[in-house]
Design brief:
30% of the residues lie in helices and 30% in strands. It contains twelve helices and 17 strands. It starts with a strand and ends with a helix.
């Protein structure tokens, strides 16, 4: 049994669930035809030429990686030559190539699954942001002479508006001056036909459900002293709390030093000391930790501060974000992109192996990590 290369690509996207990417940043097929049948899949971080020949000897139909053509000086040859050699090895063996790239960086895997347990967090706690949504409420604004404002609010309230939660007759007044010139045929409440007039008026504004707006206006016309009522009616939008899916947050069973959190991250990623940096006051401690995906559309600084976390684990941050966290006495553990992406790729390989469709199709998946694993 098998799956098509295109279906494999779809499964990768479903597992990664990247957020905030353009179509050009989604997982893609770099070599191979979408209709090709795939039975054996090799997963690597990067297809380095000196290891690739060893890997493809295993008769793999497809190679899934983080970046297709690594621009890494340590490989020892110019970028163009590396690209040609990688493409040549894969073409010779008929192996398709699929890359995750930015989708891996924006995936929930780099937060929810990868470091949550490593840092020893419990009780997953959502970090919420606000999303603008259409509201069922409208704003009704009525201009009325001084002394009639309470009658306007009462009319709107009788229609079912001017209500916020358990509070009725909710409105706002703004005093001002209205001007008008009655023309022949008009029956002004105050003023004379043909002569400019001014009146001290009040702007009355209140919320009203969309389906009750016409009824509210009908009741306002019944009690308003003017022959013609000046009013504005416009739709409102609302803010709804939504979980920030690229951030995982939890608490530690007991308070630990900020350095302890950094060391747990470093050990799990098997990263060098320089790859994990700590920003915070000396002796700072951690109790609630938020873990951000490697790639974020925008660092949710306000949401993280509002969540009550005292520690943020993230990729490289801007000075603006660092300053904001420092002002709120929030410790920061910054992780270099490569070790975090490498570990995320390893986690992704396990998720791909456990995918129900992959298991049902009996597709074999193997992770190739460091060189000792390749030779095993």
């Amino acid at each position: 049994m098998s799956v098509s290369l295109q279906r494999l690509l779809d499964i990768l996207s479903d597992i990664l669930e990247p957020v905030g990417l353009t179509p050009y940043e989604a997982p893609r097929i770099d070599l191979g035809f979408p209709s090709r049948e795939v039975r054996r899949v090799a997963v690597v971080f990067q297809p380095e030429p000196h290891r690739l020949a060893t890997i493809v000897r295993g008769n793999f139909d497809a190679l899934v990686c983080y970046t297709s053509f690594p621009d890494d000086p340590s490989i020892g040859m110019p970028f163009g030559e590396r690209t040609a050699e990688i493409a040549g090895i894969l073409a010779e063996t008929g192996t398709a190539l699929v890359s995750c790239g930015a989708a891996l960086e924006a995936s929930y895997l780099s937060s929810q699954l990868l470091l949550f347990d490593a840092i020893q967090l419990v009780d997953s706690l959502p970090v919420e942001t606000e999303e603008i949504i259409d509201s069922e409420q409208m704003k009704l604004v009525v201009f009325t002479p001084v002394g009639h404002e309470a009658a306007m609010v009462d009319a709107i309230a009788r229609a079912g508006g001017a209500r916020i939660g358990l509070y009725s007759h909710c409105a706002f007044y703004t005093p001002g001056t209205g001007t008008y010139t009655p023309e022949p045929g008009a029956k002004p409440w105050r003023g004379e036909v043909g002569r400019p007039a001014q009146a001290e008026e009040v702007r009355v504004e209140a919320r009203v459900p969309r389906e009750l707006a016409s009824y509210a206006l009908e009741l306002v016309h019944q009690v308003h002293p003017y022959e013609k009522v000046a009013f504005d009616l416009y739709p409102l939008v609302g803010l709804a709390p939504v979980p920030y899916v690229q951030v995982a947050s939890g608490r530690l069973k007991r308070e630990v030093k900020l350095l302890t959190v950094a060391n747990r991250v470093r050990r799990h990623l098997m990263a060098e000391r320089s790859a994990v940096r700590v920003e915070g006051q000396k002796g700072a401690t951690s109790k609630r930790v938020a873990i951000c995906a490697l790639r974020l559309e925008e660092m949710p600084v306000r949401a993280l501060i509002a969540s009550g976390c005292d520690t943020v684990v993230a990729g490289l941050l801007s000075n603006t974000a660092l300053d904001a966290f420092q002002r709120e006495h929030i410790g920061v553990v910054q992780v270099a992109p490569v070790p975090l992406a490498r570990a995320t790729m390893r986690e992704f390989s396990e998720c791909l192996t456990d995918d129900e469709e992959i298991k049902e199709a009996e597709v074999y998946v193997e992770w190739f990590g460091d060189e000792t694993e390749v030779g095993a």
